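Field: COMPLEX_INPUT
Field: COMPONENT_COUNT = four
Field: RESIDUE_TOTAL = 394
Field: MODE = joint
Values follow.
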Amino acid sequence: MARPVEIDRDHAFRKARELFWRRGYRATSLNDLLDATGMGKGSFYAAFGSKEALFEATLDWYHESSAAARRKVNGSHAGLAALREFLDSTLIDVSDARRRRGCLLVNTVVELEGVEPGLHRVAKRYLQALEQRCLDYLNEARAAGDIRSHIETPQLAALTATLLQGLRVDSRMGRSRDSLQERVDAFLSLISNSSER
Amino acid sequence: MARPVEIDRDHAFRKARELFWRRGYRATSLNDLLDATGMGKGSFYAAFGSKEALFEATLDWYHESSAAARRKVNGSHAGLAALREFLDSTLIDVSDARRRRGCLLVNTVVELEGVEPGLHRVAKRYLQALEQRCLDYLNEARAAGDIRSHIETPQLAALTATLLQGLRVDSRMGRSRDSLQERVDAFLSLISNSSER
DNA sequence: CTTATTATGTACTGATCGGTACATAATGGA
DNA sequence: TCCATTATGTACCGATCAGTACATAATAAG
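Field: COMPLEX_OUTPUT
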């Protein structure tokens, strides 16, 4: 009954994520987005409404798709090894030293605090969820007897989440994968019971 | 022989630092700077050359002035207590939850990577210097026998520096001073020999 | 083929950006 | 007082920003 849509939203989100991730929100212009996605201006505003709305939708899409990807990998390890696997996989995401992307959520929280309250809040919410993830892993590790420290698990989870944020800043500084791995190993051996690895 | 200068560079730097710190580089417009400093456009460009040049000069001035402030406080503690004092003083700087400033250097590195290479490099250089500071404190603590962990001191220093960066992101997220202090305490008790605090 | 409907590309808008040109104001030396 | 010199405020510049208006292209139903 009417002209069919040519837009591939998934493709657009992927391109938008890449741009926002590497250059941030304000330094990514609408033209950058149009060039990268191949969309015309009319289609863009028909599909997404505004640059701000696209960014928020991209954050949601990113959270969704990375959660989906995680569900596939999950489950092969137990105890502290599961936390280690989680931290390692974060490094892979984050530490391509040539791209220096850091973390989309950390970048956003840092860039947009006090400038774009709505977007800041969304990114902050997703970022905070990481602490709960850390807590889950640490509870499991504690139950498995892999944790040496007497510090309460919630405090350890908070510390772990903060460390993760720090690693993502390291990535943005261009530190190598090895350099980040070294930090993760040091942390794990601080809380670990055995002398693994 | 000519009209005298009315500019107070120190005052201008202080105002500029405040703006760049809270809103970042790109979200701080030239007009914001002129309003805050009370300067006219002519004077501004005569004194600083460009927005970019002002920002770089502000980074230098900030580094200089905070180093000077640090030299005054220094020396009252020894061993691990000195590291603790250092970390605590960082928290004071960073963790006014209402202002949510985070850290000027971390904010800059995160915002400007791939966007303003020159400014990114300057901020990165100053930020990297923190790791050396941590190393000095940790060496002293190690010598005093306050460190339990068998991890090499340089690795511990790297971990500490990364944790500091994470804390500064926490600040940008609006986490309370107490929340940050809790993380520092957890970390210190992980590496500490005694059961202090 | 005609037509209603919707997607798309493009010309345009007003605002704001950083930066410049330049006239004017303020000074100290003569 | 007059002038050389320098600081300052302001009008202006082109570029770019996000966003809008609208003519046109493409489709499917009839």
